[in-house]
Write a structure and sequence with these properties.
By secondary structure, the protein is an alpha+beta fold. The chain has a single domain, classed as Nuclear Transport Factor 2, Chain: A, CATH 3.10.450.50. The protein has five helices and five strands. It has helices at residues 2-25, 33-48, 55-58, 76-89, 148-154; strands spanning 59-66, 90-103, 106-117, 123-135, 138-146. It has a five-stranded mixed beta sheet with strand order 1-5-4-3-2. Strand 4 (123-135) and strand 5 (138-146) form a beta hairpin. The longest helix is centred in the first third of the chain and has 24 residues, at 2-25.
């Protein structure tokens, strides 16, 4: 009888542990995209449309963008200038978010941009990845990664190795 009781207690304990693990692991995680996606969508729309004033509503004044040397910025106002410069050099800009991942106060994704180079009339296509940080319903930081070499090649530039130096 004692052996039967021990077996029953072990089985019951195992059942309780397994039930806890299964139930706690099956809890539905919050859908962070409900809060963050509308802000993200407005931000991506700004790259296509000329309404830079929308940035005031979705960006922290001290926003920082980490990217290549030409497009890194240290404030919302610097970002407005960078976007305006892009729009001066390219027309018919289309930005498509190809993949989006939302977590609490963060976005990570992959995008594709197509446009027409204003000076040459040549179409371009560029892709990149970014991570965006949110705080209090505003974008506070962005890490943007893209390769400019294919863009330059689409515009007709070639990369040449440095000439040998003579001593």
């Amino acid at each position: 009888m004692k052996q039967l009781i021990n077996s029953f207690l072990k089985a019951s304990s195992l059942f309780l542990v397994m039930s806890f693990v299964i139930l706690s692991g099956c809890q539905q995680q919050p859908d962070y995209s409900k809060e963050l996606k509308p802000i993200f969508d407005k931000y991506f729309e700004i790259w296509e449309k000329p309404n830079l004033d929308v940035l005031d509503a979705i960006m922290d004044a001290n926003f920082v963008r980490h990217a290549d040397a030409g497009t890194s910025v240290k404030s919302r106002d610097e970002l407005k200038k960078a976007i305006a410069e892009l729009k001066n050099n390219f027309s018919d800009i289309k930005v498509v978010s190809e993949e989006e991942i939302y977590t609490e106060n963060r976005f990570a994704g992959r995008w594709t941009m197509t446009a027409i180079h204003t000076a040459s009339g040549k179409p371009i296509k560029q892709w990149g990845n970014n991570i965006i940080h949110f705080k209090d319903g505003k974008i506070v930081e962005e890490w943007d990664a893209f390769d400019n070499q294919p863009l330059m090649e689409q515009l007709g530039f070639t990369i040449m190795p440095p000439a040998d130096e003579k001593k």
